[in-house]
Amino acid sequence: MIVVKTIEEMRELREETAGSVGFVPTMGYLHEGHLSLVKKAREENPAVVVSIFVNPMQFGPREDFKSYPRDTRRDLAMLEPLTDIVFIPSDKEMYPKDYDSWVEVKGLTDVLEGAVRPGHFRGVTTVVAKLFNIVAPDKAYFGQKDAQQVAVIKKMVKDLNMNLEVVTCPTVREKDGLAMSSRNTYLNGEQRKAAAVLYRALMLAQELVFRGEKDAGAIRLEMKELIEKEPQANIEYISIADNETLKEIHHIKLPVLVSMAVKIGKTRLIDNIVLE
């Protein structure tokens, strides 16, 4: 496994790499969810590249950029058996002093996470576009947990005629259903137990739909009532939306994306399922 820190080094290695390249962009502090993406890339490509970069441009002024968990040594140990190249650029390497260019996807970014985190997706699409240009992968792997992010990146790749395939991989969960996330480390023991309410609410929505409930508003209400029984939970949004446009729907017509953002204490968690 080779670790590189500059764009020039990464490009030189890419030119020397034969066969298809699978790429997994991450912000580090890896867990089994990340590793599932790396393993999928390993299965499908002779070469695997992973980036570790906590992107300052996708964090709002009141968000957790400075406190976001970081442990590069631990990350590298986890990646060693699975990865050929790890790209770990600095902020200055990615955004030099005179940097002033952005990539922005309209429409899909106006709702859900985009509505409550202004500028977030502009930061995401900009850094992902830069990473795609630097690494030049044949396939890039993302987790379903960030469903809106995946939809936005696929739209960017299509609209800008980028020559790669975006592969979506299933959400990896803890035994109680909580989606794995680097931010789960913020939770204390009591909060960690409380966080399982997100998955229970998603399963409730699935059960209601499969029992024949067609009223999206009624499903949202039952999910809301379930989550509010947990004293530590504070709902930001509950969404039942068209799986392609991400626009809210009133009448269930599959497939639909059921998603939410909920704060447990001060920790903001997101989760979703697609009902097919």
Helices and strands in order:
Blueprint: E1 2-4, H1 7-16, E2 21-26, H2 32-44, E3 47-52, H3 72-79, E4 85-87, H4 91-94, H5 113-116, H6 120-135, E5 139-143, H7 147-159, E6 165-169, H8 189-195, H9 197-210, H10 216-228, E7 233-242, E8 256-264, E9 267-275
Parallel strand pairs: 1-4, 2-3, 2-5, 3-4, 5-6
Antiparallel strand pairs: 7-8, 8-9
Helix pairs in contact: 6-7, 9-10
How would you sum up this structure, described in words?
- The structure is a single chain.
- The protein is an alpha/beta fold and 276 residues long.
- It folds into 2 domains: 2-169, Rossmann fold; 182-275, Pantoate-beta-alanine ligase, C-terminal domain (Pantoate--beta-alanine Ligase, Chain: A,domain 2, 2-Layer Sandwich), CATH 3.30.1300.10.
- Helix content is 37%, strand content 20%.
- The chain contains 10 helices and 9 strands.
- The protein has helices at residues 7-16, 32-44, 72-79, 91-94, 113-116, 120-135, 147-159, 189-195, 197-210, 216-228, and strands at 2-4, 21-26, 47-52, 85-87, 139-143, 165-169, 233-242, 256-264, 267-275.
- The strands form 2 sheets. A 6-stranded parallel beta sheet has the order 1-4-3-2-5-6, with helices on both faces. It has a 3-stranded antiparallel beta sheet with strand order 7-8-9.
- Helix 2 links the parallel strand 2 (21-26) and strand 3.
- Helix 9 runs antiparallel to helix 10 (216-228).
- It is globular.
- The mean pLDDT is 97.
